[in-house]
Structure formats: structure tokens, C-alpha cells
């Protein structure tokens, strides 16, 4: 085997996944068919949960320095309501171009020792009981124990693995580009505002370096999406919608995107997995696609590393699908709804007006913004307190913060008593004893992705652990982190 894991696609999902795997010592090769990094700026920002994740992995400061904070107001369907108070240290959108996000993630991946091979297109794959062989366009072959397709919406891996991609095809397409305009900025702003009264999907706004980012509906749906649009096509559509092409010239890049909404019907076929746009595509309303991909990678990375390192419990890899597929289905649903709400037809406008009224209610506002920020996600870990299955927000500890202690990508036992026994799992989980921590907050077991896997029960009369706590903790450790590496003290005590 040349590697433990092959990742096809060096977009944000693939690169972040590769870093997650490297945290656990996994040998990763990332293949990308493009010889040079992407220059097209699709995503414009990170939402709260993704910013938290960057924080958890020690990248928070780099992202903060490269981005700009914007309020979350209006992020659901453009309905201008103030965002509710959110349970996070990052209650904002971090405006940062996708190219910059990819640069920061790539730098980190290289630091961690990820082998990134550009100009390397995956064209075939075959798997057997021990591994996956990837055929490359240059005729060579690469073999690894697992392969993850992070190769975007038109994923070759998905097709080769025979995974279905049901949903709706694009009904509409749009041209998006960065160009210079000879028209004065005031004129561009005034014309844009007028056109947006009837076409919410039109836009022209200044970006760095004196250029403008423009988006305009395309003339129908392209037969061959791989052929990029040219400047003349963009100018023609500007004239059609705005009555002027603003003197567009000197395009930095122009691309085309559609409103197809599709979700893979499996995230795994044997040793082959899908993540990011390869698993789900939807229109960009709410700005969630890249965020969803990063969160897929966070979920899959430690689980796949556990399988490579030989301690993954039997069912662990399947929880990637059971946890992430419903999240993507919900995002698709939300973007479908936002897409309808963008219509200027009377019916959708009436629904929009009602929803605008409903968002006056804090619970409604919180519910909808919770979907966009991904803060409200709760995985189904069975019955238990409300926090079980949710991600734990960052908290200040005696020394530093919780997220600072999660940079290694290991699990965390946050122990308020100092009495919990972790023996047998210390190689996978860090114990943080914080006896001075908020006495109202129970001890917690966190998975490497920060989701709460176990919560201490009601304390006894003296504020100590209740009798079943240690046994419940051991169950949770075995469920998520596999068997103990040595017979644990707890097991020996049980035997005796
Ligand atoms: C107009 C627009 C605006 C958007 N705005 C936002 C936003 O504000 N916020 C947000 O979160 N998301 C946004 N998105 C979505 C976001 O851009 C995508 O969800 C994100 O790029 C997905 O990342 P990925 O790594 O999964 O896939 P991609 O970014 O598509 O990367 C896939 C990679 O795989 C490579 N590849 C493909 N085939 C092969 C092969 N056979 N072999 C090897 N390599 C291959 C490609 O070269 C590419 O580098 C927007 C999208 C659009 C179109």
C-alpha cells in the first residue's frame, strides 16, 4: 500500500479531511486533477460552527486575521431580522473568500505532512477486502486501505462507486465572475438595486483591487457545464437584465453554477466514502455548502483514522452516514425553501411576508439561524439530557480554553470531580480535571469532533459522582473509542 487513505479532491473538504487524518498519524495522499490551486471564489464566508472548528484545530487566529466579521442578520433567505443571541463565542459570519480558506487549509495540511499531488486525476477505482486501487489519468495506479471522494458535485468517485445521486437537476443557471467595469460605482449600485427589485438573483458589488463580483441569470441551462462561459456571454446577460453591461472588461475569472439539489443515497460503498459536494449539492442560499463539507470532514476524519489505527468499534464508520446524511438532507430542504422565497411571484412573496412576521418570535428566528450556522445540530446518541449529541461550546478553563485543548484531535474527558477513571483509553482521550469549573456543569465526554458523548448524572448529596457514572462512562468510551488498550482498573475491580 502506498498510503492508508487516498483523498480525491484538494478542495476545502478534501484538504481539511486530510489534516484531520494526519492528526492521528494516518498516511494520506490527496489527488487533484487541476495542476494549480483553484482561483474561482465561490464561497464567501464561514458560519459559526465552522469558525469554532477552525478554533478547535488551532486555525482560529489565522482565519480571524484573514477575514472580516459580519452580523448574521438576514442570513435566512435574506429576511432582515436581527440574529438571536447564539450559544457560541463566534456569533457572526466570517467573510473570507474560498480561495483564502483553501490557502489556509492547504498550508496547515502541508505542515502536518499531507502529500498533495496536483495534476493527478482519478479515473478508475477497484476495491477488494484489503484495500482500494485508484487508476490515474497518466496510467499509473495508487493503492490504499480506504479512499474518500471529495471531488465535488460531479464526483467521479461517486459514479465509479455506483452511488446514486437522486434529486432535482438544475432548472436555472447563473453566471458568476469578477470583472472590471468602466461604469462608475454609484451607477452600478443604483442599477443593481433597481434590478434586484424583480430579480433577487442579480448582483454587482465591488471586491478587492477595483474589480466587481457580478452574478446574473444565464440564458438557460448549459448543455456542457464543463465549458466555462466567456466575457461576451456575461456582458450579453448583463445587458438583458440590467440594460447595460457596465463596460465589463478584464475578467479575472467567470464561472457558471446551477440550482441542482441532490443528495447521495449512500455515503459509503465498502472502503470508499464520499464527503462535501461529492455527497450533496444545492443552491448557495445561506452560504452553507463549504461549511457542510468541512463538517463532514470533521465527522469522518477521526472515525476513519480509528479504523486505520485498528481501534474503531464495529459500527463507528457507519455513524458517518447516520449522522451526516440527515444534516445534509435538512440543508437541502432549507435551501429549497430559501430558493422559493427568493421568487418575486405573489405566492412566494406572501409566504415570505408571513415568515418575516414569524421571525419576530425569538424561537423561530433561533431555529432558522441555528440551521444556517449549524449550531443546532444534534446527533442521535439515544435518550439523555438535551446536551447529549450536541457539540460543546468553548468554555474557559483554569488554563486556556477547552477548544485550545482539542487541537490534537483526540477525545476529551472534562472531569469536574477528579474521580473519573480513564485508564485504558488515555492513548485516545485526554482527561482534563477542572474541579474549580462551573459547579452547575456536569463532567462530559467529548468526541474528537466536540460532540457530547456522555454526561455525568445527577450528583450525590455531597456533590460527588453518582454510583452509576463510572460504569456509564466506560460504556460510552467503548462505544466511541473502542476497547481499552489494557485491562482497565474498572474491569479488574469488576472481576475482583
Ligand atoms: C456561487 C456559489 C457561491 C457559494 N457560496 C458559498 C458560501 O458562501 N458558503 C459556503 O459554505 N459555500 C458556498 N458555496 C458552495 C461551495 O463553493 C462548495 O460547497 C465547496 O467548494 C465544496 O467543497 P468540496 O471540497 O466538497 O468540493 P470542490 O470545492 O468542488 O473541490 C473538489 C476538488 O476535486 C477536484 N477533482 C474533481 N474531480 C477529480 C478527479 N477525478 N480526480 C482528482 N481531483 C478531482 C477538483 O479539481 C476540485 O479541486 C458556493 C457555491 C457557489 C457555486
Characteristics of this structure?
496 residues; binds flavin-adenine dinucleotide
Question: Can you give a write-up of this model?
Answer:
The protein is an alpha+beta fold and 496 residues long. Helix content is 32%, strand content 20%. Strands 1, 2, 6, 7, 8, 9, 16 and 17 form an 8-stranded mixed β-sheet that branches. A hairpin with a 4-residue loop joins strand 8 and strand 9. Helix 1 (12-23) runs parallel beside helix 4, helix 1 (12-23) packs parallel to helix 8 and helix 8 packs antiparallel against helix 9 (319-341). The longest helix has 23 residues, at 319-341. The chain is globular, with a radius of gyration of 24 Å. The structure holds flavin-adenine dinucleotide. The site of flavin-adenine dinucleotide has 34 residues, from helix 1, strand 2 and helix 8.
List the helices and strands and how they pair.
Layout: E1 3-8, H1 12-23, E2 28-32, E3 45-46, H2 48-56, H3 60-66, E4 68-70, E5 93-95, H4 98-111, E6 115-118, E7 122-127, E8 132-136, E9 141-149, H5 156-160, E10 167-168, E11 173-180, H6 185-196, E12 203-206, E13 212-217, H7 231-242, E14 249-258, E15 261-263, E16 268-269, E17 272-274, E18 280-281, H8 289-308, H9 319-341, H10 346-358, H11 362-373, E19 411-415, E20 429-433, E21 444-446, E22 452-455, H12 469-481, H13 489-495
